[in-house]
Structure prediction request, 159 residues.
Amino acid sequence: MGCKLITVDKRFRYRAAAIIIEGGDILFAKNERDSYYYSVGGAVKIGESAEDAVRREVLEETGIAYEVERLAFIHENFFEGKGGTLKKGVKCHEVCFYYLMKSRGTRELKSDSFATDGIREFMKWLPIEKLETYEAHPKFFIKELQSIGEHVKHITTKE
Prediction:
């Protein structure tokens, strides 16, 4: 079970996600229902470390056992559901640990992934230099991926 709390109009989730970069492109996920791209990753399970969670999620979504290079960002994200996966109007609070994964030197994946609600997911490489032209989350990637620092950066966003 993932670490999350849900009420009628509020949701909190503890998440771990990957930053997988190959040749100037970053890997995102997308599903058949929603219009936007989102980071590869998912809920941390109770009793699981965030680092173990990101390795598990990446393997589940890409079919590849990527290695963690290091923690890059801790993101506190406050937003409201707009329909689709998240019911419209639901107030969301998410804490996500973003891990930079070690490059494999290839974009080849063995993806056959489904979101928790059974909807098919697809992996897509998006060019970092054109990220602002896509509806991709998190939005802070547009600026921060241009030069990822050596120290963990804490980012808070309110949409």
Q: What stands out?
A: The helical segments are 50-62, 141-144. The chain has a mean pLDDT of 92. The two ends are 27 Å apart (CA to CA). The chain has one domain: 4-158.
